[in-house]
Amino acid sequence: MNVTVAPCAGFCFGVKRALKLAFDAAHEGDGPMVTLGPIIHNPQVVAKLEQEGLRVVESLEETDGGTLVVRSHGLPRTVLKDALDRGLEIVDATCPFVKMAQDRAAQLEQDGYHVVVVGERDHPEVLSITGSLSSDAAVVTGPEDLGGATGDRIGVVCQTTQPIDRLKAVVSRLLETSQEVKVFNTICNATSERQVNALELASRVDVMLIVGGRNSANTRRLWELCREAGRDAYHIETATELDPAWFEGTSDVGVTGGASTPQWIIDDVVRAVEAI
Questions:
Q1: CA 20 to 30 Å from 101, out of 45, 133, 155, 182?
Q2: Would you say domain 2-10+189-274 falls under CATH 3.40.50.10420?
Q3: Quick check: 18 and 72 in contact, CB under 8 A?
Q4: What does the pLDDT read at residue 209?
Q5: Do domains 2-10+189-274 and 97-183 have the same CATH topology?
Q6: Active-site choice (52, 125, 144, 176)
Q7: How far is Cα of residue 41 from the mean position of the Cα atoms in its chain?
Q8: Cα 24 to Cα 4: distance, rounded to the nearest angstrom
Q9: CA distance 126 to 88
Q10: In which region does residue 236 sit, left (phi positive, over 0), alpha (psi from -120 to 50) or beta (all else)?
Q11: Domain 13-93, CATH class in plain words
Q12: Cβ distance 1 to 276 under 8 Å?
């Protein structure tokens, strides 16, 4: 079996930075260490951090002092204030690209624009972006969701892992109904590169394997793109999920991983496929 790994598979800069901060905090800090939700969307990495003493909680009410490591997706400003009021030390592992999206949204609001966020409404990154505002923002997954999100002055930002075509479609529709539309393209370059790499690789192989957490939006999007391109594609978290039937009659397999997928998991998958 000929297995090719996409050039940009695996950890992006923001994830590498977040994990370094998290592991450093776990090794050097005193007292309890928590993250509010998983620091990245990869269950295997989160489990390793828990072994180091960094516990995942769902509410600040579960904490009793210590350190809060802010997840790579960021947190709403009200949550950060609550953490400080509770006496928690803050280690901010927010991805710089997510922080930029938060800042751009806040800037648009300050300048008098009604903010539209292109992304998944309940995704923690989107919640951190809308949570940087003092007024309600419209969150849309595409132009069909715009509804009442119109007005004289509209400002647009985007969840960092969204495809550029989705942002373009929303902006195009807004230009039909609004007098002024100001757009900040806050899509992360790493996301775009992974998508381009995945599609290029998919065009040259029989089967694509997309490796990463099922709760990872950017990993799921890689899988969707490969399927939309007409390629047999499978989204797996680890090599244990591989099914030999997927590779019957094939000789070329492509592998890519989301921005939160560690290299060791990708390597495990490659070895397992080569052994089939």
A1: 45
A2: no
A3: yes
A4: 98
A5: yes
A6: 125
A7: 7
A8: 33
A9: 24
A10: beta
A11: alpha beta
A12: yes
Q: pLDDT-based confidence at 148, cuts 50/70/90?
A: low
To the question of domain 97-183 being in CATH 3.40.1010.20, the answer is yes
Rounded-to-5 percentages of helix, strand, coil across the chain: 45, 20, 35
What is residue 165's three-state secondary structure?
Answer: helix
Question: How many C-alpha atoms does 119 have within 13 Å on its Cβ side?
Answer: 29
Q: What residues does each domain of the chain span? A: 2-10+189-274, 13-93, 97-183
For the question of residue 125 being annotated catalytic, the response is yes
Structure tokens at 100: 């930029």
pLDDT tens, 77-117?
A: 999 999 999 999 999 999 999 999 999 999 999 999 999 99
Q: Is 115 helix (H, G, I), strand (E, B) or coil?
A: strand
pLDDT at 146: 87
